[in-house]
Design brief:
- It is built from seven helices and no strands.
- With 155 residues, the chain is mainly α.
- Helix 2 runs antiparallel to helix 3 and helix 4 packs parallel to helix 6.
Length: 155
C-alpha cells in the first residue's frame, strides 16, 4: 500500500481523511502526526478523530503536540461539542500553555449547557474577568478623555 501523504515533509497531511492511515503512521513513528490530526479533525467525524487527537496530545515533539491541541479546538468549532476524553485531556492540561486556545474555542463554540462542570466554571471565570477588563478599559478611556479636555481648556 502506497501512501498519498508525504509524512517526511508534512505536505498534504491537512487533507488526511483516513484514521487507519494516521494509526499506521503513528505505529511507524512518523513525523508530522500533529499536523495530520488537524486534518482528521477537519475531515472525519468527532468519534473517529477524538482518540487520535488525544494520542497526539502526548507526542514527544512539542510543536506536534501543540497541533494536537489546535485539532481539539478545531473539533470544538466544527462540531459544537467534544468527546468526554477530549474534555478530560483539556482539563488535565488546564487553561494555559498548549491548551489555552483549545479551551477558549471550547468555551466559545460548545453550548454552555453541554459543557462539563469544570468548563462551566472556567466559562464563568473568563466571562467575569472579561467584563472587569472592559470596565477597567472604559474607565481608563474616560479618564484619558477628561485629562485631554482639561489640558485643552488650560491652553
Amino acid at each position: 500500500m502506497t501512501s498519498e501523504y508525504d509524512w517526511e515533509s508534512g505536505k498534504g497531511l491537512l487533507g488526511i481523511d483516513d484514521p487507519a492511515e494516521w494509526d499506521a503512521a503513528f505505529e511507524r513513528g512518523e513525523d508530522h502526526l500533529g499536523t495530520a490530526v488537524i486534518g482528521l479533525a477537519f475531515n472525519c467525524t468527532l468519534v473517529e478523530a477524538s482518540p487520535r487527537i488525544k494520542r497526539a496530545m502526548q507526542l514527544p515533539d512539542r510543536g506536534q503536540r501543540g497541533f494536537a491541541f489546535t485539532a481539539a479546538g478545531a473539533a470544538a468549532r466544527l462540531n459544537g461539542e467534544l468527546t468526554p476524553e477530549l474534555y478530560a485531556a483539556l482539563r488535565a492540561e488546564g487553561h494555559r500553555g498548549f491548551a489555552e486556545t483549545a479551551v477558549d474555542d471550547t468555551l466559545t463554540f460548545v453550548p454552555f449547557r453541554q459543557l462539563p462542570p469544570w468548563f462551566k466554571w472556567r466559562w464563568l471565570l473568563v466571562t467575569v474577568r472579561d467584563k472587569l477588563d472592559a470596565w477597567r478599559l472604559n474607565a481608563t478611556y474616560v479618564a484619558e478623555d477628561a485629562w485631554k479636555a482639561l489640558r485643552r481648556r488650560r491652553s
